[in-house]
Model the fold of this input.
Amino acid sequence: EILMTQSPATLSVSPGERATLSCRASESVSSNLAWYQQKPGQAPRLLIYGASTRATGIPARFSGSGSETEFTLTISSLQSENFAVYYCQQYNTWPYTFGQGTKLEIK
Amino acid sequence: EVQLVQSGAEVKKPGESLKISCKGSGYSFTSYWIGWVRQMPGKGLEWMGVIFPGDSDTRYRPSFQGQVTISADKSITTAYLQWSSLKASDTAMYYCVRHYFGGTGYYFDYWGQGTLVTVSS
Done:
């Protein structure tokens, strides 16, 4: 199965600043990459699919990029509600696999 | 509005059986794959498997094959995840997820609220 590795494990950023989260696949997943946000006590929520397409209702400060094995999620001008855990997921090959998550915390 | 509503939290003993449910509404239940994702306490997300309610075609992650059974009853638009003999290591939050076709594979566009399963003697 494809191994997804996210970095860093924890990212401390001040409100209003930009956050950049990385996700690496052990083999090419083309652009079949999604990002999810999970807040404490809540189910995850789809943010990005196709590596760069925002899901319905997701604000423009969230952007995704990359292809093949290297992907990035960028959150510009962080708001208080953006501090959460973020997961990437490849859907190129069964079984679908997630990264271990990046916790975005307030600096 | 698409909704996936899961059954409530469960507390079971090792060796007991369990079946949890996920009722879909607001969309054509038989037209989308629906699956399950496990989240163990304080850990990340693991895709377990999926079923296509239209014809009951089912796929499992190899590590879950034989450990759980995924089923669906399209007459009541409900998917199920069941265990025949629970272990303490099955303690986790379980989410049902609607699979949306993304051109090659499927990402998860709607999530249930989660069902917490606790297995303890």
The two ends of chain A are 35 Å apart (CA to CA). The first strand of chain A starts at residue 4 and ends at 7.
